[in-house]
Amino acid sequence: PLSSPTLKSPIGCKEDSPAYIHLGQRRCMANIQRSERSKPSRRNRLEIHSVHAGHCLENRNQLRIPGCVGSGGDSALCIGVWVGNATGEGKPGLVGAQTAGPVLFDIFNYLPASSWFERPTGVFVDAEVCRQSGHLKGRFCEETDTVLILPAGLRTDACPYHHLITLAADEKHRVYENCANTEPVFQKSWFTLPPVWEWYYKQHHPEYRPLPPFKAGCGEDTFQPMQFIYPPINAHIRLPKQLDGSKGFLTVELAHIDPNATVFWHLDDTYLMQTQDFHKISLQPTSGKHSLTAVDGEGNTVSTTFFIE
Questions:
Q1: Which of 54, 116, 146, 293 is the most buried (most CB within 10 A)?
Q2: Which residues are within 8 A (CB) of 11 and not within 5 positions of it... i.e. 6 or more apart?
Q3: How far apart are CA 75 and CA 128, in angstroms?
């Protein structure tokens, strides 16, 4: 799931409390096991009989700072593993569950045998959560799970990603209710993510279905169909030097919910190029402030500002 009220513990749960540690080790184990299941040919590193896992800090900022941290069975032992770029820039596949996590558990395998963490009693409550998002069940969530969470989790937001939409009979187009009198329509709950989240989510969830477009003459989209993956707004960037001493490049990337969209790129109001399928280009901007704008074939526009040091 995208999130989980079981880990939203700042309210009423300290990070060194037994409940927080118990939830953290569950999250870390789940991430590592999920990674191993996705690679069946890889040697299983999870034959662990006496391992204690603490927190797993992964993908907190759009996969930019991956890492995994473990905690031993008593206060005298703490092991931490972090894998990533010094700049914090994300790279494909550089996530804690696939890099830092296996190293962490290999280290744990060398430790003396001891018992596993026991689940604290009297601190958790049952809650119904959305199976896809991990948030508390919302009005339109159809698949749910009942899990143990901290009482503070009951005060978190309900799932904001399931919406009730009106579809044409073929389910390929959305329609407004003003078209209901001219053709068969029906309503359906739909799981929808922002463009950048969707871009990452689809890589590991082929079952994800993007929101269908509106049928011509029966409505138009009011949300932004594209977002910049990199650079973030007001980023301060230092271009690297190549081996020959020349100035390096800045690679910018954009996510669009329409896989067939054409995107036109502009830097400081100067047209650069157009992209299809993969919306990623390399730039060599001069020092100072710059404005990057992308426009798709439907006229949707998104802009960001960055600084070259």
A1: 54
A2: 152, 155
A3: 34
List of E strands, 131-203: 144-149, 162-168, 185-191
How many helices (H) and strands (E) the chain has is answered by 3, 14
User: What is the Cα gyration radius of the chain?
Assistant: 23
Q: What is the DSSP letter of 115?
A: P
73: enclosing H helix or E strand: none
Q: How far apart are CA 2 and CA 256, in angstroms?
A: 20
Q: What are the tens digits of pLDDT across the range 174-228?
A: 887 666 666 777 889 999 888 888 888 888 888 988 888 877 766 665 667 888 9
Distances 205 to 38, 182, 192, 279 between C-alpha atoms, Å: 11, 36, 13, 20
N-terminal to C-terminal alpha carbon distance within the chain: 38
CB 140 within 8 A of CB 98: no
CB 17 within 8 A of CB 122: no
Q: How many Cβ atoms sit within 10 Å of the Cβ of residue 185?
A: 19
